[in-house]
Design brief:
This protein has four domains: 102 residues, no CATH class; 139 residues, no CATH class; 68 residues; 289 residues, no CATH class. It is built from 20 helices and 27 strands. Strands 5, 6, 21, 22, 23, 24, 25, 26 and 27 form a nine-stranded mixed sheet that branches. Strands 10-11-12-8-9-15-16-17 form an eight-stranded antiparallel sheet. Helix 9 crosses helix 13. The longest helix has 17 residues.
Length: 716
């Protein structure tokens, strides 16, 4: 049974958009309570927690059956929590919290679950006011009966949400819609058409969102100015608030027309699209509809038109960890400091080094606090003195952030997975991680180690979002990250916990290093580097001008392990009982530096946010014989593609800038819920020898035998 998050809408009687007042997610539920009604008008839909995190977070647009809504910022979520007597449910993940604080500031004190509460039995309605607050957006709507184009206020009296268990039936209707004139009425002339329309009046026609929006790379989003557009920047000469209409001449393409029923002005929406269309648009007003504010002074970025369902309308900026024990003494100390600070709270200054009082407070704390009682007096005193030191300044934090690499978040996980667990089945009490070593069996040469991860916990947190272009976590412009709160300094961020299982596969480092040295001097790698440079320079992100593209290019070993992971995901879906979209990858692939040793491995996992775990179908594939068969079948499947020879010979050439080689949806690519790099950095020829790579075409890709890591593999 799925644990869904209620979505409450900013309904009739709530605060108006962009007035600086928080949204009341209850809508008219208070009136309903007074009247002892059994219907909750506020609830308009539901979504899974991970969906709200990665796809439909604050600032995104959720397409409901009859209209669209936008989850609001965390300021409005606070109002939801304040309605409950209990404290918000937090997520314990110190390592992830440290990263969030590095990104957003030390004022972030906790990771929180979504404001959800299970429904209570009987007639109680305790959970009605817990959900993700949202407002209708876009608020320009079109009547499906007469093509009337008007703001939401024109249709608000026609809002219907009458069934407490069917929020999908919520709809805005145009009351007394005249409808479109019939052909017979049109043949009688304009007067006859109007008369026919009046005779059909009295019906209620559903309204749908007007699908055009204005967005800019700085993360602002606004309604399309239909009145301004149809009158070409002027005012209607016949009416102060003219009645507009939107009509389509075809179901294909941008063929919509906007017309003014007062003065007869008419303009095609296709004129607003493309490079030429941008020159006809007004300047960006700097609007953040999820926060209900405008950026002071407006925005200088170039706006563009985008449709409501566009995939680049919202990109979540997230971080995630697999909860594993800390091996580094410094990391362990930071965890203890976090626990101690949480246990002492406001008493920190008063207790100072009063150890008996500190131990008394620790006894009353959570399980983590109780474990600090095992420390001796000297260790506890050192923690108290460290805790009393001045906090890191924002300037120091920003300097540290400039040198931060997302790989730093993976290094502790890699280091722990490299350690041999004691016994055949080891469970860590604190993290809940359960791992079991596996013998290799007849796996292909190059695979050096396999672990079955019987149980794991994955924690995900959202930091903000971007529009138009994805957010690069390395040295990207901080200004492009849209905040989740009006102040720009959140004190908490939403997080989810996923539990599941996985398989860890490590490749032989010496073999990978020898292979990587060959690839780095090959023409294929030179072509990929050039394509990455062209792709990087054409991105919308302003940071493309500040950093050399090679600093963002994944090394060859990443291409190798990433491609192999995709092949295994596709093959494991045939035998594990899970769909390919349910299996995700976590790639550990980086070259050695002064700060860290080289890594070459992958963790394939399946997790669920609404249960205590999974069924073990993935772990069962880690048995030596079964894994050897899976690997052999995956490699065999990669030797042939239904798009060959086109796919096998694919190498980007100027002006092409795609970030993959011999890979396509027929052979290698997987669902973007499974891939951590959006199906980029893939090439089959780095894994196995491809037949007819050169194909006599003069492509000059070099010997495919040297490019393949499993160079001795031969398909049956």
């Amino acid at each position: 049974m799925s644990q869904d998050q209620d979505i409450d809408q900013d309904g009739p009687g709530c605060a108006k958009l962009d007035d600086g007042i928080g949204v009341d997610p209850l809508g008219d539920a208070d009136d309903l309570s007074q009247n002892q009604a059994k219907k909750n008008y506020a609830k308009v839909g539901s979504a899974r927690p991970t969906t709200l995190l990665y796809t439909y977070g604050p600032g995104a647009i959720i397409d409901l059956p009859h209209f669209t809504v936008m989850p609001t910022g965390l300021d409005d979520w606070e109002r939801i929590w304040r309605r409950r007597a209990a404290d918000p449910v937090t997520v314990h993940a110190p390592r992830l919290l440290e990263t969030v604080q590095l990104m957003l500031g030390h004022q972030v004190s906790e990771l929180r679950h979504f404001p959800w509460q299970p429904p209570q039995p009987g007639a109680r309605r305790d959970g009605d006011d817990l959900g993700v607050p949202a407002r209708v957006f876009p608020q320009w709507m079109r009547c499906t009966g007469c093509d009337l184009l008007a703001p939401l206020s024109r249709f608000v009296n026609g809002y219907h949400n009458t069934h407490p268990f069917r929020p999908d039936q919520a709809v805005f209707e145009h009351i007394d819609c005249p409808g479109r004139p019939t052909r017979a009425a049109v043949a009688q002339g304009r007067r006859g058409a109007k008369g026919a329309a009046r005779r059909r009046g009295g019906r209620h026609s559903p309204c749908v969102p007007a699908r055009y929006l204005i967005v800019c790379p700085s993360g602002h989003l606004d309604e399309f100015p239909y009145d301004w557009w149809v009158h070409e920047g002027a005012h209607c000469p016949k009416a102060a608030h003219p009645e507009l209409a939107m009509s389509d001449t075809s179901q294909r393409g941008a063929t919509a027309f906007i017309s003014c029923r007062a003065c007869g002005a008419r303009r095609r929406m296709s004129q607003a699209l493309g490079e030429e269309g941008r020159q006809r648009l007004p300047r960006c007003r700097g609007r953040h509809p999820h926060l209900g504010i405008f950026t002071e002074g407006g925005c200088q970025a170039e706006p563009r038109v985008m449709l409501v369902g566009a995939s680049n309308l919202w990109f979540a900026a997230t971080q995630s960890i697999i909860d594993m024990p800390r091996l580094d003494p410094e990391e362990q100390k930071r965890d203890r400091l976090t626990v101690l600070g949480r246990a002492l709270g406001e008493d920190l200054e008063s207790v100072r080094e009063n150890l008996p009082f500190v131990r008394a407070l620790l006894k009353r704390g959570d399980a983590d606090a109780v474990r600090l009682l095992d420390l001796d007096d000297d260790e506890l005193t050192e923690l108290l003195r460290t805790l009393a030191l001045p906090a890191e300044s924002d300037d120091d934090r920003l300097k540290r952030r400039e040198s931060w690499d997302p790989v730093d978040l993976l290094v502790p996980e890699w280091n722990y997975l490299l350690t041999e667990p004691p016994g055949d089945h080891h469970e860590d009490r604190d993290s809940g991680l359960v791992i079991s070593p596996r013998s290799l069996g007849d796996v292909p040469a190059g695979v050096s180690r396999v672990l079955a991860v019987d149980r794991l916990r994955k924690v995900n947190a959202v930091l903000g979002f971007t529009r138009v272009d994805d957010y690069d976590r390395i040295d990207d412009s901080e200004a492009r990250l849209v905040s989740l709160v009006r102040s720009g300094r959140p004190t908490w961020v939403p997080a989810t916990e996923d539990r599941g299982e996985g398989i860890f596969i490590q490749l032989d480092e010496d073999a990978v290093a020898r292979w990587e040295a060959r690839v780095l001097i090959s023409p294929v790698w030179a072509a990929h580097r050039a394509a990455h440079r062209r792709n990087f320079e054409r991105r919308f992100s302003e940071t493309a001008k500040q950093i050399h593209p090679d600093e963002r290019l994944a090394p060859p070993r990443y291409w190798l392990i990433h491609t192999l992971a995709h092949a295994l995901i596709r093959q494991m879906a045939m035998s594990s009982g899970y769909g390919a979209a349910s299996i995700s990858e976590r790639i550990y692939a980086w070259r050695a530096t002064e700060q860290r040793e080289a890594a070459a491995g992958m963790l394939l996992t399946t997790t669920a946010s609404d249960s205590d775990g999974t069924l073990g179908g993935l772990v069962s594939l880690s048995q030596p014989n079964r894994l050897a068969d899976i690997l052999d079948q995956a490699l065999h499947a990669m030797t042939r593609c239904s798009s060959d020879p086109v796919c096998a010979r694919r190498v980007p050439k100027d002006p092409e800038d795609f970030l993959h080689g011999a890979a396509c949806h027929c052979c290698t690519m997987v669902s973007e819920t499974s891939c951590e790099r959006a199906n980029r950095f893939l090439d089959r020829r780095f894994v196995i020898p491809l037949p007819d790579t050169d194909g006599g075409t003069g492509a000059g890709t070099g010997g495919n035998q040297d490019l393949a890591f499993f160079s001795d593999y031969r398909s049956a």
